[in-house]
Write a structure and sequence with these properties.
By secondary structure, this protein is mainly α. It is built from two helices and no strands.
Length: about 70
């Protein structure tokens, strides 16, 4: 068996190990919907800065999409 065969086998083993590790890691992270939101009272103010240049026609739609 040639060098290319063993190189292919090593590559497959590496990517399988990488994929398995990635799969295990993703399963150990809790989804945000499962985490309780503990907001302080009063809720802090947030500033949003949007860089815009020559956006007269599109700025209103962009701001509405950011604000919800």
């Amino acid at each position: 068996m040639g060098v290319w065969f063993w190189l292919a086998v090593a590559s497959v083993v590496f990517w399988m190990a990488f994929g398995w590790d990635l799969f295990r890691g993703n399963r150990s992270i809790r989804a945000l919907k499962d985490v309780d939101a503990c907001l302080p009272e009063p809720v802090p103010r947030v500033s949003i800065i949007i860089a815009a240049r020559n956006e007269e026609e599109k700025i209103e739609r962009a701001l509405r999409s950011v604000l919800g």
